[in-house]
Amino acid sequence: MEPKPQVETPPFAVTCLECGTVDYESKGWKAYLSEERTLLVYCTECAEREFGD
Ligand SMILES: [Zn+2]
User: Fold this and answer.
1) pLDDT tens profile 6-50
2) Domain range annotation of the chain
3) Closest C-alpha to 19, from 40, 39, 46, 50
4) How far is the centre of ligand 1, averaged over its atoms, from the C-alpha of 18 (Å)?
5) Distance between CA atoms of 36 and 29, rounded to whole angstroms?
6) Rounded distance from Cα 14 to ligand 1 centre (Å)
7) What angle do CA 17, 22, 23 make, to 5 degrees?
8) SS3 assignment for the chain
9) pLDDT at 37
C-alpha cells in the first residue's frame, strides 16, 4: 500500500463574516465577541470598512 499524501492542515482557518474570504494566517484580521458570545471575524478590508481604523 502506498502511503497517503500528507495534506498540510493549517492550525485553523478563519472566514470573514462580511465577504466570506477564507484565510489561514489572518494577519490584520479583527475578531469581535458579539453579545451572544459569538466570535465575529472580519478581514482587514471589512474591518476597516465596518469599524474604521
Ligand atoms: Zn472581508
Assistant:
1) 766 556 788 999 999 999 888 889 988 999 999 899 999 999 998
2) 14-51
3) 46
4) 5
5) 20
6) 11
7) 115
8) CCCCCCCCCCCCCEECCCCCCEECCCCCCEEEECCCCCEEEECHHHHHHHHCC
9) 92
d(CA 10, CA 18): 22
Ligand 1 centre to CA of 42 (Å) is 5
Cα–ligand 1 centroid distance for 5 (angstroms)? 32
Cα of 13 to ligand 1 centre, how many Å? 14
Span from the CA of 1 to the centroid of ligand 1 (angstroms):
43
The reported pTM is: 0.67
